[in-house]
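Please review the protein record below. Tell me whether the encoded fold seems credible here:
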Amino acid sequence: MTETLRGTPDTNTRQEKINAALDAVAYLEQEERFDEVIPVYQDLVGRYPDDVELLFKMATIMLRNGDLREAVAHLRKVLFMKPEHLAARANMGNALLLLGYLEQAKEAFDAVVEAEPNNRNALYGLATILIKMHGHAEAEPYARRLVQEIPGSAAALSLLGDALSAETKAEAATLNYRAALRIDPEYVPALLGMAKLLIIRKKSEEALETLEKAHDLQPRNVEVLIAMGHAYMLDENHSSAVESFELAHACEPDSAAALVHLSIGKRKLGLVYAGVYHAAEAWRLAPGNKQVSNALGAALAAAGATDAARDVLTSKSRGSQFLEATKAAIKEIEYLAEQGYERPVREEKAAPQVSEPDETTEEPVEEEADKSQVDEAQAEETVSEEETADAAESAPAAAEELEEKASS
């Protein structure tokens, strides 16, 4: 009787029921028919809410299915019941990264690496986050440790290439991308990394050739489409560039990076009102982002709204808040763009670069801006896709790789 009260026979019976239910849907899980598998897990968790591993498995399935917020909620329960569950903490990092919460994701991965220094999932996640945060030098050691763990992995080699690419180590980055492509000639992140280096070297023809391979493999990859637009811009093929940026926007409407580049491309074609329209969209998605505000300020200047442009370009010193007159000017230009109107083509004047305002010297910065005539913010013509990608709230390209790495 004592054994029964403690749950030994009942626990065995319960586990048998759980195993039988999961075995019945195992083939669905293998075929990634997660929408049919999740209800089975939900029923089991409802009957056995104290089973930590069952809850963890359900959260992992939700992560693989893209139900990120639900996965996070259940992973929090797992970690509350079992804080030392490293696989759950690593998956929490994956889910938070995909949701765009980089700092929280980094905390999760840091905790995993501290307990298990060679945890591949956490090493990959940390390197990815640091690259997104422009900490390439900090990302490099994690990427190298990952390559040491799995030297035959195209994902690990390509990630190391990404870490090296922004640290004036282009040759080393190229070697890693090539090594990744020898292992998997169709690994898109490596193709994309190679193409970006070619664009930096202004080898647009070779870059486009590489990007076309990547595009054939992943036609809806936003980063690939934006990079193709950059390559076309190098050749001054602005129409093709805009087409690529429009496809990127269509694939991911909430990508501020795609909208910023689309704004710049439209201005290159002389469609300055459309440029303001797209830059304003990007601002609403990522208010306060430096590259987005630069693009919006330059677009407003090109549209002749110099006061509004000046206000936007100096707005960071005021908490990224616009004057009511600026909001009204943007709204008016957006209306004109929606109606298909455009500003008559005129010869653009060269304008001095508007420097990033210093938050500690708010008033002097604004005085200086008032004295300068802003016809166009020149430096913003060459906004890099790496910087503007951070404006997007959702974490992009690593989704498939992270889902594959979700522990089960």
User: Anything to note?
Assistant: The longest helix spans residues 8-24. The chain has three domains: 2-108, 117-185, 254-400.
